[in-house]
UniProtKB/TrEMBL annotation:
Keywords: Coiled coil. This is EF-hand domain-containing protein. Residues 65-92 form a coiled coil. It comes from Noctiluca scintillans. InterPro entries: EF-hand-dom_pair. The keyword Coiled coil applies.
Amino acid sequence: PSPLQNAVDTVVPIGKPCSAEEMANICAKFVNIRTATQATVDSVRAFLTDRQRDAKGHPVHAETVSKLQARMTSAQSELARATKVANDQEQRLAGEKMIAEARELTVALQDQVTTCTASAAPLIEQVGDEFLVAASVEILADTLRRHMREDDISEQDLFAQFSDGSETIDKERFVSFLEKLAILISRDEISFTEQRRQAIFKHLAHDGEVRVGDFREMFKRRFVCKSCISVTDIFEISKSRTT
């Protein structure tokens, strides 16, 4: 069969039931055939144009060339129709692919939204209570650090004051002592409301009590390293080795 017939035959299966992969293969095959066919069409058109000039003054030859040009025009129309069918199908496949990718992105986005929502819950659903309580605990810890430094007492000594010598601090004792503490050490920044004092206790406590380990945890400071740096065995860089 001619290149044109190959191109037309290639697009015949389009529209019949088949998988997306099979349809993509058909379209890809047509693109290759169309390229070769178009090259042939261009070559024939140029040839007929030359023959048309040569046939001037020769009616019989001119009529033959005219018939060939009519066939050429018909062939171009068939190729154009086949190209349109293939192009429409390619666009449909591209659209289906975009929809599938959009669905995947939507699922991934929904997962991210779920994660972000869970992370932001303390600020959104709980009106920022957890964040504010944590900030209050940090203020309390900073204030007590200064107090321990000024009075030269340890965390254990301070815990003993809170617990009145007991191994644990219950809610009533903690809230009551914290209320008096601001006056005892003259620190207005820890004059928390009753509700906030209870929230601080809940933040520190485990199983309804604050133990010495829970109390000491409040004073721990955590830092985030924002850039990498090599660790050396001595301070003098020129003579050191990284570890």
